[in-house]
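If I may wish for something, please walk me through the protein I am sending here so I can picture the backbone:
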Amino acid sequence: ITGNTGDSPDYSCIRCIVKLEQEISVLVIDNRKYEKYEGGYIKAGNRCGVVDENLNIIVPIMYNNIGSFDAHEMDETYYYMTTDEGMGLMDSEFQIILPPIYRCIYYASGDKFIVGNPSYEKTPDEWKIGIVDRNGNLVHEYIDGWINDGFMNDVKQSVYYGNEYNQGVIDSDLNIIIEPIYKYIAVFELEEQKDRFYVVENEKKEFA
């Protein structure tokens, strides 16, 4: 069994559990330091789950992976889980709010998430992204394309791929900022001006 003491899916070995009669934050025995176990992700074999500080199972050990979203403006902590069928979402209490059926999930804003078309609808060459709320209601119809490296929550927009593997830029409401007609788009940010700009390349290897 492997697990960790925080909310990061970074597995570290639990060699033993020591129960004490009194509260103590750090225990050292034979120069080995034992820290208080607060619960967290746990892995048994090739499946993941979540346990509390007493190793009571909170989330069944049945998922391929479990992790938390790294979003700067989220009002609530959300966790994702993956299975062979797709990706799903849990709230801060580890209650499932979106079943693991989506090809991908990215936090957009508020209680909205950009999702890849459900796994049972996918074909090898057909990717679509839409927006659902935390209740699974579709609030923006699916459009052709997919997000490559996650959604840029801090700037509310991201490079995405449209048809024919061409790149464009969308915002968190799936409004198209730059049409997906370019071979490649590079993102540059100027921290002092808190601004960003894009360099695009077309099929002729011309840049703008």
